[in-house]
Every structure is written in C-alpha cells, then in structure tokens.
Amino acid sequence: MASDVLAGGNPGLARLQAYPFQRLRRLLDGIKPASTAMPVPLSIGEPKHPVPDFIAEAFRAGVDSGLGRYPATAGMPELRAGIADWLRWRFGLIDARIDPDRHVLPAAGTREALFAVTQALIDPANRPVVFMPNPFYQIYEGAALLAGGRPRMLNTGGGGIPDLDGIEEREWAECGLIYLCSPGNPTGRVLPQAFWDQLFAIRDRHGFVIAADECYSELYHDEQAPPLGLLAACQAARRDGFRGCLVFHSLSKRSNVPGLRSGFIAGDAVLIEAFAAYRTYQGCALPFHAQQASLAAWRDETHVRENRAAYRHKFAMARETLADIAPYDEPEAGFYIWLPVPGGDDEAFTKALYADTGITVLPGRYLSRPTPEGDPGAGHVRLALVAEQAICEDALRRMRRFIEQWK
Q1: Does one domain contain both 173 and 254?
Q2: If residue 246 lies in a helix (H) or strand (E), which one and from where to where?
Q3: pLDDT tens digits for range 189-207
C-alpha cells in the first residue's frame, strides 16, 4: 500500500539525498570513543548561548493574549514595522525604499521560508533550473527537487564565491531562481558589491528570482565592518524596489532562539505579494506569542553585540590552537570553521577524531555534491563553535592533540 502511495506521489521525494546528519550518524554508528572526556558535538549549527531573558519574558507574556486568535500570515503590523526599522538601521536603507506593508513578510524561520519560496515562485515547466552554491545548505536542493525543479551547483572553491562566468547564457535562460548564502555556510565568506552587480546584470537579462539567505549576517567579527546585504547592494546599484530580489533573515543565530522559529522575508513587493498568497494557503503564520518575542528581539542590539563578542573570543581561541597545525581561511562571519583536513580524507578524519576524542565534526562532502570540476566539500570538515566558551576551548585542545598524531 505504501509503495502505491509513493508511486503516485511527488517524484522529487525519490531524488532527495540523506540529510548530512543522517549520513554522519551512519558514519559513526558502532564507534565508541576511547576518551573518557565529555563528548562535544561541533557538527551542528545549533546556538548554545543563553536565550536572552527579555525575549523569553515577551514570549510568555504573549501566550495568554494570543491563544484565542488565529494569527494572520502577514503578521502583526507592529512586527513588520519593527523589522523594517531594523533593516533601515542595519543596512542603511533609505526610509522610502522599505515599506513594512509591501516589502516585509514574517516567516517561521529561514528554513521554512527558503523551502517555500521555490514552491511558490518557480515555473518548472518553463524555468526549471535552480542555482545554488556548492557547498550549500541542503534545504536549497530539497526545495528545488520537490518543486519539480532541477538543481544546478555553483562551486565556490577556495575563495567562497560562486563563479558566475562559468555559466552559459542558455543555462541562465532556464533559471527560475538562484539561492545564495552570504555570509556563507560553511565558508563564512561575504559576497561583495561587485558580485551582486554582475548578478543583477544577468538577472535583468533573464528574469529569475535572487534569494539571499542572510541568517548569519549578525555574527560578524569586526564591529566596524558589518557584512553587506543584498538589499543594501540593491540600493547601492540604484535598484529601485529591490527588483527580483528577496532576503531571508532569522533570529535563531542572531538572538540564540532557534526554538522560536522566527524570521522574515523582505524585498521586491511583487514577489512578496505572490509569496504571501502562497503562504496563506500553506498555513504557516507565526503565533502571536512568537511575534511578540520576535519584536522584542529585533528592537534590541545589546544582546547581539554580546553574542558577537562571545563568538569573537572563541574564534581567537581557535586561531591560537589550530591555525599553525591545520591552517584555514578565517571566516568573515558566522560561527563555522571550514577546516582543510590533513591528509584530505574528511570521512576518515571524522571517524578517527570521534573514536579518539569524542568530538563530532561534519565531513565537508556531506555539504556538497560532486561536479565535473570536482567536489568542493571533500577534504574539509565543518566545525560549529556554538558551545559555551569552556567547552569549545577543551574541544579545540583535544583536536590539536589529535591532529598532531594524525599528521
């Protein structure tokens, strides 16, 4: 019976690949670490810093007043206005260019929105190609497949920037949407204005949607140099109305509230209107108490600066501990280290590291796909410096001792 249902279901389901963490569990299955030290998962990017008290208080305060009402897909006007204010402040947007009623849409986190945007906005019969960076967040690929699209990988290579010059015009003509992640997961690279300008010119010839995943944008290391965002790049390019462009932001990393499942989409009003119509039927409106907590979070920057300072300190520890023995490119933002593996075998390194130290990292090939030009994820592991400082410090020291023996 089940096979009959699958046979008549979405054909994209059969093309989905195992999620990275499923592959990791299989890789480590049956291995019992020799170390008596506490196991440390550096494999998953789930923030472990404390949830700010004022956000939890706003959440609790909103529960009683919101349980008896259906929330609207568009969210509370106050929340949209608060998000628009934050966008103006953070990215230097001119007031008239960001209208909370036309350019902003709350979402149940970036994962939900990044998946849904492809279902809503591509036409697989005419423009089936969905471009995405390689390595990448696997939601991009799954969204493309389940929308009836065709994923097309853009290798980022050592520089962390997709190569737009390697794409022929006929491929761009078939493109319905391009996903980009800036700051990047896993490299931490920020896409510069020159990249966006080149992409804008290509987009205006072919008419696809630019979807920028910016969920790591607030975890930068230099307080004087916050990462460029797509909407700011549009403004610099005099791109009125953010034509063809959408950004996706989240509170999960910025404010240490992954369980709140809250973020937003912003950009082109025509695309926002179409996306809102889709999401009204999808039924993913944020509950009122989540909206109240979200508004409190977007209005406060003190906890975000403190969060950045904590990550900055951990990255300094990582440099002091690993950089001389396992050199890597310092990320511009985010909380990942994209570590080249001594010897080049990321799966073997991951297994041996776990067996010896109890530390879990993610093989780079689980975040990428092989291409004719090679597999840009192979030969790396991703470390997520999300645990508290003392735990990260201990894990980094264990890693150093292991690498000294591994080499």
Answers
A1: yes
A2: strand 245-250
A3: 999 999 999 999 999 999 9
